[in-house]
Structures are given as structure tokens and as C-alpha cells.
UniProtKB/TrEMBL annotation:
PANTHER family: MAJOR FACILITATOR SUPERFAMILY (MFS) PROFILE DOMAIN-CONTAINING PROTEIN (PTHR23500:SF542), SOLUTE CARRIER FAMILY 2, FACILITATED GLUCOSE TRANSPORTER (PTHR23500). It is found in: Membrane. This is Major facilitator superfamily (MFS) profile domain-containing protein. The keyword DNA damage does not apply. One of its GO terms (cellular component) is membrane. Residues 25-474 form the Major facilitator superfamily (MFS) profile domain. Keywords: Membrane, Sugar transport, Symport, Transmembrane, Transmembrane helix, Transport. It is a multi-pass membrane protein. One of its GO terms (molecular function) is symporter activity. Belongs to the major facilitator superfamily. Sugar transporter (TC 2.A.1.1) family.
Amino acid sequence: MAVALAMTREERPYNGRITSFVVLSCMVAAMGGLIFGYDIGISGGVTSMEPFLRKFFPEVYNKMKEDTEISNYCKFDSQLLTSFTSSLYVAGLVTSFFASSVTRYFGRKPSIIAGGAAFLSGSALNGAASNLFMLIFGRVLLGVGVGFANQSVPLYLSEMAPPQYRGAISNGFQLCVGIGVLSANYINFGTEKIEGGWGWRISLAMAAVPASILTVGAFFLPETPNSLIQRHKDHQKAKAMLQRIRGTTDVQAEFNDLTKASSVSIKHPFKNIIQRKYRPQLVMAIAIPFFQQVTGINVISFYAPILFRTIGLSESLSLIMSALIAGVVGTAATFISMIIVDKLGRRVMFIFGGVQMLLSQIVIGCVMAAELGDQGSMSKVYAYLVLTMICIYVAGFAWSWGPLGWLVPSEIFSLEIRSAGQSIVVAVNFLFTFVIAQTFLAMLCHFKSGIFFFFGGWVAVMTAFVYFLLPETKNKPIELMDRVWEDHWFWKRTAGESDKNSEHQVA
């Protein structure tokens, strides 16, 4: 009996390759990252445009223009202004739990369609906004769209990808986020120059382009074999789909593991995910998205143009620098991550990126503390040094905590708790995105340059967390991911408990 148990625990290599069918499907699904990235980039740029501030946030505009004694760090401190950005994340947080049920009971494809349609509606409303209510309500619809997309797209990519290429394919989500940020920043740079002060409407309305691609394209997406097995008793349809996406008829080993994982599917995943045997996955579902948000990336992503104006750059130059740094550097680094993630592994990239971010944040904080006072501006030499360090920081995030913050949670859950686990990941991500977005400008005003040391401290903590508590998941089939936790020096005490009990019962 012991030999039989040992044989069932052997990892069998799966057959299959990357097919054009998988590539095209994942490219369409990854557009969910594009709408997320576009919104991140567009909101920061629009909130730095003077016509937009004058129309919707006149108090902020007047304080920026007329109050000559206000600190450089406090010019944009407005809870109403941050509500414009953060309202999306409150809506996304609530939506993610509804999206879990849709994803579980109806499939990944309907969730992606719902996300694209809601985002499309929100972009239309924002582009036509004539008052603050329309503006915020449009943001809420955008949040519903992002909530559905961020819950379903990472799962879709992980389940469609062959295990040996899962990191590269799943990181396509973050690559699209980077492309979205890049596109948004260049659009902001162009629309800011439109005479008449209505360029911000184009910036907001252009979100309809990626949303339309996602919504229409999603109708032609195939459902994942995992979802088909989970929702239908007839498994032959799932096997046929698995053969199609793997490009071979010899998929029996992978199919057997899929059906075995589905056989323990449960009716109440949110209730069961708090069980002791799922504790490692639950901890990661909370810790990884939390740490992703307290890296300080929102300082750059949301408010880069504002931050650059703080150090003395003009409105136009602030927008173009945001495009170059957050867009070009971030996208290039994410592409590098796609190439090397399945070779180096997740842990190495997490740790290396963490060290890189920490060092750059320390330098930025020190320079701004020494050279930027409450009034006036920084010399060009030090301003460019800060910009260089921001480039290094963005690159570090873009090949570590950016893509891996979505990749690792999407691949660690058993099928029976996968939709619930991903919903928790998205909810925690949105919760702390909201907290950071809502408090950042006030923190910048009160902490001043110390804000970089604040986030740098968190980067040190999360790097240590990965070193000690995160096992390596590269090349591991997601259907067999429970073995990763059972072999870990710390988590094996809880993760292996159910297997030990079942072995005793068999004996």
C-alpha cells in the first residue's frame, strides 16, 4: 500500500506544446490587463491636467496656482481628488466576490465578457461627464469591469498554459498592464496640448478601445478544460478541449489529474478555504497582493505626473516623463520577466527585484530630503538623479512584484478553492490599492520625502517573507501544486495534514 501511495505521488510529465490556438486565446484574454493598465496610467495624468482640475476640483486648482506658501508636498492634497481615483477600487473590491460565483458556476469566459462590457460603459460615461457625480459613477463602472477581469483573466491564463510555460504566458497579463500604462501616458501627453481644455475627455473615453477589443474578443474565447470539468458531468468535452489546446491527443496524464482535482470540488469554497489544510494558500492570497501594493508602486503609477511636478518639472514634461518611465521601462522589464521567469523561478526574481526597489527608494528619499524643500524646486542634476532612480525602481517592480504578484496567486490554489482564492487576491489587492490611493497625497504632505523610506521598509519585510515562506512553483502543474506546500519546511505542518489522515485511514 505504501508503494502504491508513493507511485501516485510521482510527478508525471505532461505532453503538449504551445499552440497558436492557446497563444491567440491568451492574447485576447490578456486584454483584461490592458484595461487595468490604461486606467492606472490615464487617471494619474488626467488629475494633473489643469482644465480637468479647474472643472471638477477647483479647490485643488486654486491651491496649486494661488497659494505660494503651501509646501511642495501638499499642493495636491485633497480627499475629493483621491476619491476620483480610489472609487474604482472600492467597486472592484465588492465586485470581485460576485465575480467569484460567476467564474465558478458559469465559467471564466462569461466573467471576462462581463468585465469588458462594464468597463466599456464606464469609459463612455467618464468621457461625457459634465459633473462630479457622472465622473465618479463612471469610475464605479470601470471598477466593476476591472473586478471581473482581474478575477477571471489570471485564472484563465494559468489554466490554458502548459506547466513549463505558465510563467511566461501568465505574465502576459502584467505585460498588457504595462502596455496599457504606456498607451495612457502617451495619450495624456497628446491630449494635454489640445486647445480649449477638453483633451481630458479624449483620454478618459479612449478606454473604450481596449474594452471593446476585450468584450468582442471574449465571445470567441474557448472555455478552459478546468472550468469545463468543474461545471459539467460529461468530461469528454473537456478532454477534447485539452487535446486541442495542447496540440496532441496524448493528454491522459494531465486529464486524469484534472478530473481527480475536480472530484474533491466543494460547494462552499469561501468557507472551506479557511480550513487548516488550505492555510498556506490563504496566507499567500492575503500577503502577496498586500505586499504588492505597499511596494510604493502607486507613488509612480497613479501620481507620477504629480510627483514630477512636485520636484519642479512642468506639466508637459511631467506627462512625457511619466510615459517614458512608467510605460517604456516598465513594459520592457515585464517582457524580460516573461522570458526568464520559467528559467530562474519565482523566488529569485521576487528577491532580486525587492533588493533593487529598496536601494532605489533609499536613494530617492535621501536626495529629496536633502535637496527639495517645502518651497522652490530641485536643481536639474538632482531632479534627473531622482528620475534615474525611479527608472531603476520601476524596472525592479516590473520584473518581480508586478507580474509575479498576479502569477503566483493564480497558480497555487487547488481547483476546489481556485475561484474563491483568486477573489480574495483581487479583493485584497483592491482594498489596499484603495487605501494607498486614498491616503497617498495626505501621506506625501505629512511624510514628505520620508514616504520613500516608509515604502522601502515594507519592501524589506516582503523580501524577507518571500525568502523564508514562499516555495518555488516554477514548472509545477497547478493540479499538483499541493505537493509544493507539503514539501516546504514551514508549511508542511499544515498542508500535509489531510494526506496523513487519509494514509492512516487506508492503512
